[in-house]
């Protein structure tokens, strides 16, 4: 058996770490890592990496969606804006938010995470605080554009950052834990808005203004703290010793993340991501949950309010919905890592969302509709960490992965510009048009998940048959083909081709 074939046969389970024996394939072979305790070190990494990211995303989600809470406390009346103008103010947020995500991810890779994430957080904290002093429609629109520009880099940046620390079969649970803060933000925003509204009249400002001011100031403080708290990538993380850094990088490279030891930017990585069918299917999947996500987070209080509950009661009744979504998000994150068949998890979650929104469209019973909101929450939120882990696990090359995640998340978020306009005041109290559009989005996510599953399965089968084998100098391989490339070594082939390398196996 040739060396090429032997290398490929090792990867029967695409999420199983294989320790490379060949010295030339080991990162920093001069460093002895035998003394490293994996369990203790991974626990320490978890505590240094995940909790603060969860705090940052909680603030991100809280600041992005608190305008929905403020609207219930007469913000639109005080600013003298119509329902249509309010929807425009929501919509303009998404254009810079979506378009800036891919370049922001590339900037994060070029710069330190502690520097870039702290900077954009400071900008959006200032923009959020200024929401509380705005006096007209033009000012509100301008601040929403600035907020979208600044917030754009956090979510895709965190996802890419986590993928640079964890193996493919560990990523879903970590993303689930960090993303659960979004559901906590959804619940907390209702409680916080109800509490802060009691400051109505303080300093001559209405209660809704204090919601923006206080939450914005907290974000500014955390942005400054982030510069000192956030760790950078594994090869430069200060909380790790040199031996531990080498061990983490070897561990990632054994999990087919060959670029973990460092990679220079080349424009071809961007073109590779654009030419990859996985990128476009991932964009469809992200569209399938991001569109519904923004509609759900912005309008849940309004939907509950129109079912017959007053503003404060509507905010408070949204709390248990988000609490349930939080439980489901964390549970599905761990389940995806355990079962290693993320496609079927996605199909099941999108399926439950279809059922929930069909009920919302057909129901005229407030209690049944409130139950359907739970179904929707348990579908939309858990799908996100499972999909993020699935997509990022199947893209190798740190710059290519950052570009793919940036494009997929950016396209998904751009659809928030559509779904932030689907719940019109003229459609209340049942909002059937809005629910129907969200239903269509979820159906797109289901279809693209199924298509990606079959594409990856077919590609794995082709590689098992040797149809993707490259020509390696000095290695005899009857299956090797010129169109798959010619390389001086296996190491050169996998470094150059990333997930297109014949030895790479996609996780289903």
Order of strands, main sheet, comes to 1-2
Instruction: Please report the distance between the alpha carbons of the first and last residues.
Output: 27 Å
Main sheet record? 2 strands, parallel
- Beta-strand portion reads under 5%
Portion of residues within helices: over 70%
Number of helical stretches of at least 4 residues:
21
> What general form does the structure show?
globular
Note the run of SSEs as H and E: HHHHHHHHHHHHHHHHHHHHEEH
Radius of gyration: 24 Å
Low-pLDDT parts are 1-24
Oligomer: single chain
Q: What class would the helix/strand composition place it in?
A: mainly alpha
* Overall pLDDT score: 83
How many strand units? 2
Note down, in words, how this protein is organized:
By secondary structure, the chain is mainly α. 71% of the residues lie in helices and 1% in strands. The chain has a two-stranded parallel ribbon. The longest helix is centred in the first third of the chain and has 35 residues, at 38-72.
Question: Keywords, please?
Answer:
508 residues; mainly alpha; two-stranded parallel ribbon; globular; disordered N terminus
